[in-house]
Amino acid sequence: MVNLPTIRPYQPTDRHAVIEVFRLNTPDFFDVGEQVDLEQYLDQYGATYFVMEEEAKIIGCGGYHVEKDGSTGRLSWDFFDPQYKGMGLGRLMIDHCLEALRKNDQLKKTSVWTSQLAYKFYAKFGFETQEIKEDFWGPGLDLYRMEM
C-alpha cells in the first residue's frame, strides 16, 4: 500500500522550504517578483497555511484566509514541486482548505485569484471566472479572479 503525503499546518521553520518550492515554479507559473508577496502572506496568514510532506520533505503547499469583509474565504498560494504535478495532490490540498472554509458559517462565497495556467483546475471544484486582467501577475501571467 502506498502512503499518501501528509498535510500539516505551516510552521515558520518551513519558510525556506516553501520558498524553494515556489522558486521551482518560477517563471513558468509565477513571476519572480511575487516571492515578496508570498513572504508577506506567510507572515500575515501562516496560521491558515499548510504544507504537504512526503518523507519529511515539503513537496507542496497551499492555504486560505478570510477577507476583511468577513464573508469571503479565499484560497491562496497553492503550488507544488513540479515533479509531483499531475498526481492528484493539488486536489487533496484544495479539498483540505475548502473543508476548513466550509466550517465557517459566516462565509457567503469563496474566491481564488489564479492565472490562465491554472483556472481550469479550479473550475473542477466549481469556481467560475468573474474577471480577467492581462499581465496582472507579471508579463504573460494574467489574473483570473474566480468565485464559488
Topology:
Blueprint: E1 6-9, H1 15-24, H2 35-45, E2 49-54, E3 57-66, E4 72-80, H3 89-102, E5 109-114, H4 119-123, E6 128-138, E7 141-147
Parallel strand pairs: 4-5
Antiparallel strand pairs: 1-2, 2-3, 3-4, 5-7, 6-7
Helix pairs in contact: 1-2
> What is the C-alpha radius of gyration, as a whole number of Å?
15 Å
Largest sheet: 7 strands, mixed
Strand content: 35-45%
Q: What sort of overall outline do the alpha carbons produce when their principal axes are compared?
A: globular
| Poorly predicted spans | none
Which structural class do you get from the secondary structure elements? alpha+beta
Order of helices and strands: EHHEEEHEHEE
Query: Largest sheet, order of strands side by side?
Result: 1-2-3-4-5-7-6
- Which architecture name of one domain does CATH use? 3-Layer(aba) Sandwich
Total beta strands: 7
CATH superfamily of one domain: Gcn5-related N-acetyltransferase (GNAT)
Feature tags:
4 helices; globular; alpha+beta; Aminopeptidase; 148 residues; seven-stranded mixed beta sheet
